[in-house]
Specification:
633 residues; Arc Repressor Mutant, subunit A; 5 domains
Length: 633
């Protein structure tokens, strides 16, 4: 590896050397080879595309479905002096237009895109004119229908290869089975197979799966025993609050987190946990992506995840500092029954999917033959309540409608207010002189932000209200007045998921739904749930079971999971019982009843099992109902 990569790593990220496999992956990218990298959660995937992109002329396009993570990475790059921008659902067409222009004509090094943005012909056309040096595909398992988290917009990624045939792909993921590894390379049209895989082994993690009737009480005991900070994952938003309250009532510092919270509140809760002001965060699976907290000592699941891939990722947030940590899954028979029931609910009929589409069009008042390109804030909970339809089938129907190209959905994420002046400096100065009521606000904006004449900038109305000693409502009113006068453009904040119609409305009875794909996807889902239940019920070693699932067949017992600890305890007990039997029989032959009565360890079943084993191995001989230790062997 050249000195350039090390010096860039040191200059921008402050590291003296690379983590395992990073160097090899970077070299593969620099050789313009399509590359698939499997690195565990916290393994430093972003460095693998950021370093080569900085070494090469041009711009790196990063595709990720995680808008919150995208925003964090863009902000971090800006903080260390690297120009980066992001395009995701919720931005207005003019904002997107300006960003794309800057990527073609400016000095932007990284363009982050949410995958649904690739549906846009405008975006595709502008990418064609960019000096692209690398396509980085994060969460690459999302492209595979055999994966646990298939995302229909990822099927658009092949178009990137059409736009720039000679630009390599770097596909990145933390989890993928052998089938998914092959499918990723096929879907991204790799010229040749090229995979870098870091072992899925996390030998500092003691995985546990415990059947427990009193999950709440067991959770308290685990947290008290282990110490340190941790995460408790639950099934829904209501449970995050209930469990957090239960922990607090039992003297444990805790808070709750889910995607329905406002952006500022989510950030505040996350920051308190990161800085150990909050010890335990109780969350849905919306929590944790891209969060690199090294000292997490436990991750407790109070519900069974839908796949081993999801479980491995969430459990893997423990012990990133390399010290001993414990992912613990607590379950009951009802949890297993619920998981199997949800699989059935997740695959609604074609008629139900068509009906959901019909409701969507009516909900947003889309006329027949219109709607293509329209985007709306989408409150899915309100939608489900309004039309009195079941939650799980509806969410699945939306995914299948997305897969068939009727609509695009984005996750809920806080998008702050954006502002731009639409006139030049001279004209704006005239406005300040002519209209005194706007002068202080205009000055405050100009002093606070650069580039406000060229690009949309994010603004904080509350900060302006504080500076100018007026109310938030007065600031918003002044801004709207500037918009009315065509002096500025203003886009209010939003914290809702975005739904975009990709085609004009059709009669729902004629709506095409790929029922073959639905059946295939159902088989994948059933196999994933069966693997999850097999992990719980039939493992001989938790770590070994996970490694086998991901294709590592030659792994040994971990010796630290619950099953290994139980087995080792049994082995030690059997050894000690054997020594005790030897001592008793060497002293004096015994009847079986007397022998069993004198052994101090284990129950009668265990004692008899050891005696039988010793007889089979000729350590004990029986003469007229008396048991002797065979000293001749």
């Amino acid at each position: 590896m050249s000195l350039d990569s090390i010096s860039i790593l040191k200059q921008y990220w402050g590291h003296d050397g690379f983590r395992p496999l990073q160097e090899e992956i970077i070299q593969s990218v620099l050789e313009k080879r399509d590359t698939l990298a499997l690195l565990p959660t916290g393994g430093g995937k972003s460095i693998c595309f950021q370093i080569p992109a900085m070494m090469l002329p041009g711009i790196c396009i990063v595709v990720t479905p995680l808008i919150a993570l995208m925003k964090d990475q863009v902000q971090h790059l800006k903080d260390i002096g690297i120009q980066a921008v992001a395009i995701y659902s919720g931005l207005k067409p003019r904002e997107v237009d300006i960003i794309l222009d800057n990527c073609i004509f400016g000095q932007i090094k990284f363009l982050y895109l949410s995958p649904e943005r690739l549906y846009s012909e405008l975006v595709q056309e502008r990418i064609k004119h960019m000096p692209v040096n690398l396509f980085a595909i994060d969460e690459a398992h999302c492209i595979s229908q055999w994966g646990y988290d298939f995302r229909p917009p990822y099927l658009q990624l092949g178009k990137l290869k059409e736009l720039h045939p000679d630009v390599p792909f770097l596909a990145l993921t933390a989890t993928a089975t052998t089938a998914v590894i092959a499918d990723i390379q096929d879907k991204l049209q790799f010229k040749q197979n090229n995979v870098f895989v870091k072992s899925f082994l996390r030998d500092n993690l003691g995985y546990m799966a415990l059947e427990e009737e009193n999950k709440a009480g067991r959770m308290i005991r685990i947290i008290q025993k282990l110490g340190g900070s941790g995460v408790v994952y639950v099934r829904n938003r209501r449970e995050t609050q209930e469990v957090a309250r239960y922990l607090v009532n039992n003297g444990i510092s805790a808070d709750f987190y889910h995607a329905g919270l406002l952006g500022k509140e989510r950030d505040s809760k996350q920051e308190a946990w990161m800085q150990n002001r909050t010890r335990v965060i109780v969350a849905t699976n919306a929590f944790g992506m891209g969060i690199d907290k090294p000292d997490v000592r436990f991750v407790i699941h109070l519900d069974i995840p839908e796949s081993l891939e999801a479980y491995y990722q969430e459990a893997g947030r423990a012990g990133r500092d390399g010290k001993k940590a414990f992912p613990v899954l607590l379950y009951q028979q009802g949890d297993k029954d619920r998981l199997l029931k949800n699989v059935k609910l997740s695959f609604p009929s074609v008629a139900f999917i068509q009906q959901v589409y019909h409701h969507l069009c009516n909900h947003f008042q889309i006329p027949y033959g219109a709607g293509e390109g329209l985007t709306f804030d989408f409150d899915v909970v309100a939608f489900i309540k309004k039309y009195k339809i079941e939650t799980i089938p509806t969410l699945s129907a939306l995914k299948f409608l997305e897969k068939d190209g009727w609509l695009a959905l984005s996750e809920a994420v806080f998008i702050p207010s954006r502002f731009k002046f639409e006139i030049n400096h001279q004209e704006l100065y005239k406005i300040q002189v002519q209209y005194e009521r706007y002068d202080k606000l205009i000055k405050a904006i100009l002093r606070s932000y650069g580039g406000v004449f060229d690009d949309y900038i994010t603004i904080n109305e509350y900060e302006f209200a504080k500076k100018l000693v007026v109310s938030y409502e007065q600031i918003v009113s002044l801004i709207h007045a500037l918009v009315q006068m065509e002096i500025a453009s203003y886009i209010p904040p939003t914290d809702a998921p975005q739904l975009s119609f990709l085609q004009d409305r059709v009669d729902y009875k004629n709506l095409y739904v790929d029922h073959v794909f639905i059946r295939e996807r159902q088989q994948v889902k059933i196999a994933q749930v069966e693997a999850m239940l097999n992990y719980i019920e039939h493992s001989t070693c938790r770590s070994q079971s996970l490694l086998h699932y991901f294709g590592e067949q030659n792994s040994l017992f971990c010796q630290v999971c619950d099953l290994c600890l139980i087995r080792n305890h049994k082995v030690m007990m059997h050894h000690n019982i054997k020594l005790e039997i030897e001592r008793i029989l060497l002293s004096k032959p015994q009847t079986i009843q007397d022998l069993i009565g004198q052994i101090s360890l284990g129950d009668d079943e265990i004692k008899l099992g050891v005696v039988r084993s010793l007889i089979d191995n000729h350590k004990i001989r029986i003469v007229e109902d008396l048991y002797f230790w065979n000293t001749k062997i």
